[in-house]
Design brief:
Blueprint lengths: L3 H18 L4 H11 L6 H12 L8 H18 L9 E2 L2 E2 L1 H4 L2 H19 L6 H15 L4 H10 L8 H11 L1 H14 L4 H28 L2 H4 L5 H4 L5 H5 L1 H20 L6 H12 L3
Antiparallel strand pairs: 1-2
């Protein structure tokens, strides 16, 4: 059984330990901590730990990488909530960073989380070659050809500008999926897996990323507003392109099933019994928030 709460505590302890050592102005550190401590599922760190567990590697080896990844994810949420982007006042049931502090502080807190994440990443107990590979892959996943580029194309496609499933999938492979793929790839690098297993892990991550987004879109139609943290139907109200909008609700459910089956095939192709990865996939697609 996947130990989500245990993994969550583990990465949060590492983030807190890192922040304790960070000699930053109090207000900046408070703003960074405010968003880091906002909770969340910690799916990305969980993927790193799940891979390490599957290959029988001490999961503490992934703490610094998991914390760095969650810091980058958190920076992206701070910036996404800004008035120039999604203009959201609430996240996870409390005021967003720029409301709790101010816009300038929120921007700088996001900047600091992004840049200091790489300092945290370099604390990973690994060879220089593995550390270099982690830095290169995380920078790519988070940058212009990954998460940031996907976010821009998503913004440009709002108000009905996306009518093609392939285009929507391209956006979410970058915006949502890139950091998820990095998570399983990082776990593989830390576990020194074979190139074949690394390819299977990346395939799993790609399909998991799309499945994650499809489930998000389905929950926007069928979910409980209190659980998902936003009004049901908000995507449709904002005229955002979603899988249910392009495929219909039943079509989106079929697309979700196809992505899950492809992810399961990638797991089955691994050289080890990766039960934790299957359980994590099941959690992602059956979650209600």
């Amino acid at each position: 059984m996947i130990a989500l709460n245990e993994w969550k505590t583990q990465v949060e302890n590492k983030m807190e330990e890192f922040m304790e050592r960070l000699a930053a102005p109090d207000r900046l550190r408070d703003s960074m901590r405010y968003s880091l401590d906002a909770g969340g599922k910690r799916i990305r760190p969980a993927l790193i730990y799940a891979v390490l567990d599957a290959f029988s590697i001490d999961r503490s080896k992934g703490d610094a990488t998991a914390a760095a990844l969650e810091m980058i994810h958190t920076y992206s949420l701070i910036h996404d909530d800004l008035p120039a982007m999604d203009d959201d006042d609430l996240r996870r049931g409390r005021p967003t960073n720029h409301i709790a502090f101010d816009e300038a502080t929120a921007i700088l807190a996001g900047d600091a989380l992004l840049t200091n994440a790489f300092s945290c990443l370099l604390e990973t107990p690994a060879s220089p070659e593995v550390k270099l590979a982690l830095v290169e892959r995380l920078a790519t996943a988070a940058g212009a050809t990954g998460m940031v580029g996907g976010q821009l194309d998503d913004m440009l496609g709002e108000r009905g500008g996306i009518n093609d499933v392939a285009e929507l999938e391209s956006i979410h492979r970058r915006k949502t999926g890139a950091l998820l793929v990095f998570a399983v790839e990082a776990g593989g690098l830390l576990a020194s897996v074979s190139s074949t297993d690394l390819d299977h892990l990346k395939q799993y991550g790609r399909h998991l990323g799309i499945a994650f987004q499809i489930q998000d879109d389905i929950l926007d139609v069928t979910g409980d507003a209190e659980k998902i943290g936003k009004p049901v139907g908000s995507d449709e109200g904002n005229e955002k392109a979603t899988y249910p909008k392009l495929l219909g609700l039943e079509g989106a459910k079929r697309a979700l099933t196809a992505q899950v089956e492809a992810a399961e095939q990638a797991i089955d192709a691994l050289s080890v019994e990766a039960t934790t990865l299957k359980e994590l996939l099941d959690f992602v697609v059956k979650r209600d928030h």
